[in-house]
Amino acid sequence: MATSNDLLIKQRSVNKCLAAEGCSAANVHARMKTVYGEMCISDCAVRKWVRIFKREDPRETILCSGRPLSASVTAHGENVDCMIRANQRVKQKEIANAVGILKERVHHIVTTVLGYRRVSACWVPR
Predict the structure, then answer these.
(1) Fold for domain 73-125?
(2) pLDDT class for 57, splitting at 50, 70, 90?
(3) How confident is the model at residue 39 (pLDDT cuts 50, 70, 90)?
């Protein structure tokens, strides 16, 4: 069975296709309701997405939902570790700007994944 996120992405793609064909929001929602039944997104959401899709070029619209998965631990862990080994006094904000991820993700990688802690403004292994 598909997860709710997968179902939402599928419904947005159907919404995108029907909006590109020039269907009205009410028509799109009615057609989606016959296919998805109770699992169909609301009329308000359909109208919102039809407005977005009609404004943009349909070939360039991104359909994924939720946060981007750019701050994966495995991809950035080595970069963060190299920065800390090069300068133990480096700040989390400097790491976040250099790597391009949020400061909270840097904190998670440094403390939980790499096992460092702050002692006298220096990162040291636990």
Answers:
(1) Arc Repressor Mutant, subunit A (1.10.10)
(2) low
(3) confident
**Three state DSSP letters for the chain:** CCCHHHHHHHHHHHHHHHHHCCCCHHHHHHHHHHHHHHHCCCHHHHHHHHHHHHHCCCCCCCCCCCCCCCCCHHHHHHHHHHHHHHCCCCCHHHHHHHHCCCHHHHHHHHHHHCCEEEECCEEEEC
Domain residue spans of the chain: 4-55, 73-125
Residues contacting 11, CB < 8 A, separation 6+ = 32, 36, 40, 41
116 and 84 Cβ atoms separated by less than 8 Å: yes
Q: How far apart are CA 118 and CA 56, in angstroms?
A: 47
Token readout for 72 is 């994966």
Contact 116, 110 (CB under 8 A): yes
Structure token digits, residue 55: 């404004």
